[in-house]
Amino acid sequence: NAGVTQTPKFQVLKTGQSMTLQCAQDMNHNSMYWYRQDPGMGLRLIYYSASEGTTDKGEVPNGYNVSRLNKREFSLRLESAAPSQTSVYFCASLGVVTDLYGYTFGSGTRLTVV
Amino acid sequence: TQLLEQSPQFLSIQEGENLTVYCNSSSVFSSLQWYRQEPGEGPVLLVTVVTGGEVKKLKRLTFQFGDARKDSSLHITAAQPGDTGLYLCAGLNYGGSQGNLIFGKGTKLSVKP
């Protein structure tokens, strides 16, 4: 099925560890996004990539880096995880899917930093 | 900073009741989208409204974009347990960075059988 695939689904890290969240879309969309979702805070944009080869900071970029590897893949890296980065992370792409123009989200990565 | 305020935050109703969820801002948006998110999943796009005053219907769901493009509402008729979820509105800025949506914090709807 067409969509956005995120891995892993769950992850527990110790403070100071690093990890990369993977995201791939097969809808040929140009723009891709990383959001985090926290209770009471809603969805907040971390980084985005308007097209292959470009990346830009969103609202909450500190502590994160991204790589737009190709048109399909957009990864999010935590270099030195902190408890404040405990959250649910969503990747999304922007484009037309079944006659609707908007975001298609992955199913999320639930990250706990202890 | 542009904000989208959603109300109510929480709504618990019985099956068969009608409800309206509101999404308000002091800013003008070029378009507004509504998403539904179920536990453990990502948000799923329901509709995009673009024209001020526009009304779109999706089965028992009716979406309206305010004339001034600052607000929107979602009305559900005869709610069913399957409508349970988090409803998010998201606005696209005029002249903003490509595709960057501003999300409201959501309305958590629970429909009891």
Compact overview of the structure:
Chain A is mostly beta strands and 114 residues long.
Biggest sheet record of chain A: 7 strands, mixed
Greatest chain-chain contact: A-B, 25 and 21 residues
Weakly predicted, low-confidence segments of chain A: none
What class would the helix/strand composition of chain A place it in? mainly beta
- Beta strand % of chain B: over 45%
SSE succession of chain A: EEEEEEEEEEE
Which oligomerization state do the chains in this entry correspond to?
heterodimer
| Global geometry of chain B | globular
Helix content of chain B: under 10%
Rounded Rg of chain B: 14 Å
- State which percent range the strand residues of chain A make up: over 45%
Euclidean distance between termini CA atoms of chain A: 35 Å
Descriptive tags:
heterodimer; A: 114 residues; mainly beta; seven-stranded mixed beta sheet; 11 strands; B: 113 residues; 0% helix; globular
Give your account of this protein's structure.
The complex is a heterodimer of chains A (114) and B (113). Chain A is mostly beta strands and 114 residues long. Chain A contains no helices and eleven strands. Chain A has strands at 4-7, 10-13, 19-25, 31-38, 42-49, 56-57, 64-68, 74-78, 87-97, 100-105, 109-113. In chain A, the strands form two sheets. In chain A, strands 2, 4, 5, 6, 9, 10 and 11 form a seven-stranded mixed β-sheet that branches. In chain A, strands 1-3-8-7 form a four-stranded antiparallel β-sheet, with no helix packed on it. Chain A is globular, with a radius of gyration of 13 Å. With 113 residues, chain B is an all-beta fold. Chain B contains no helices and eleven strands. In chain B, the strands form two sheets. In chain B, strands 2, 4, 5, 9, 10 and 11 form a six-stranded mixed β-sheet that branches. The mean pLDDT of chain B is 92. Chains A and B meet through strand 5, strand 9 and strand 10 of A and strand 5 of B.
